[in-house]
């Protein structure tokens, strides 16, 4: 009986050790899989964070470039009020000289007709000279439009005359004027209006929010992973 009981006890202990060894093997395999998963996720998370930081840095640089170009010109512009201008007179006064590039270190002189357009702003009786845009105002405030200088002066003359005929056909045109009346001229179009500023700021803003969202999602994933791991330890 003693030998039989001992044999049974030895067999039971052997089966228990075998079960524990099998459990330990599964446990080691499970831990190894988790380590492999963590090891595989770590470089991916680092790359995602670097991508998010790169997007944020790029958006900040774009904001800087826009701030010294479009936003600065938009803020410095005094033609902020939009109104309706009635064309009173559209005539060609004189020929203006311009220079065009004819090659390396070569510049030649050409001429274009100066078109002067006078309008009445909002039917108030205020007569102002109309310019095509901010750029035209800075280049030559006397003329409505300054074409790109070229050798063929006849083509520039035809272009200006076509513009004059269109203005005579459309007696009322939208325009921008200075409400403080410090600038006598009014503009037909603005280089940088509300729409252009909005679209210019839209894409850097989307990039900034996208980069921040990537970083937040990575940090949230890491937090949830640590939380699940702590819950698993508590259950064991």
Automatic annotation (TrEMBL):
<dbReference type="InterPro" id="IPR015382">
    <property type="entry name" value="KCNMB2_ball_chain_dom"/>
</dbReference>
<keyword id="KW-0812">Transmembrane</keyword>
<keyword id="KW-0472">Membrane</keyword>
<protein>
    <submittedName>
        <fullName>Calcium-activated potassium channel subunit beta-2-like</fullName>
    </submittedName>
</protein>
<dbReference type="Pfam" id="PF09303">
    <property type="entry name" value="KcnmB2_inactiv"/>
</dbReference>
<dbReference type="GO" id="GO:0015269">
    <property type="term" value="F:calcium-activated potassium channel activity"/>
</dbReference>
<keyword id="KW-1133">Transmembrane helix</keyword>
<dbReference type="InterPro" id="IPR037096">
    <property type="entry name" value="KCNMB2_ball/chain_dom_sf"/>
</dbReference>
<dbReference type="InterPro" id="IPR003930">
    <property type="entry name" value="K_chnl_Ca-activ_BK_bsu"/>
</dbReference>
<keyword id="KW-0406">Ion transport</keyword>
<dbReference type="Pfam" id="PF03185">
    <property type="entry name" value="CaKB"/>
</dbReference>
<dbReference type="GO" id="GO:0005513">
    <property type="term" value="P:detection of calcium ion"/>
</dbReference>
<feature type="transmembrane region" description="Helical">
    <location>
        <begin position="196"/>
        <end position="218"/>
    </location>
</feature>
<keyword id="KW-0325">Glycoprotein</keyword>
<dbReference type="GO" id="GO:0008076">
    <property type="term" value="C:voltage-gated potassium channel complex"/>
</dbReference>
<feature type="transmembrane region" description="Helical">
    <location>
        <begin position="48"/>
        <end position="71"/>
    </location>
</feature>
<keyword id="KW-0813">Transport</keyword>
<dbReference type="GO" id="GO:0015459">
    <property type="term" value="F:potassium channel regulator activity"/>
</dbReference>
<keyword id="KW-0407">Ion channel</keyword>
<feature type="domain" description="KCNMB2 ball/chain">
    <location>
        <begin position="14"/>
        <end position="33"/>
    </location>
</feature>
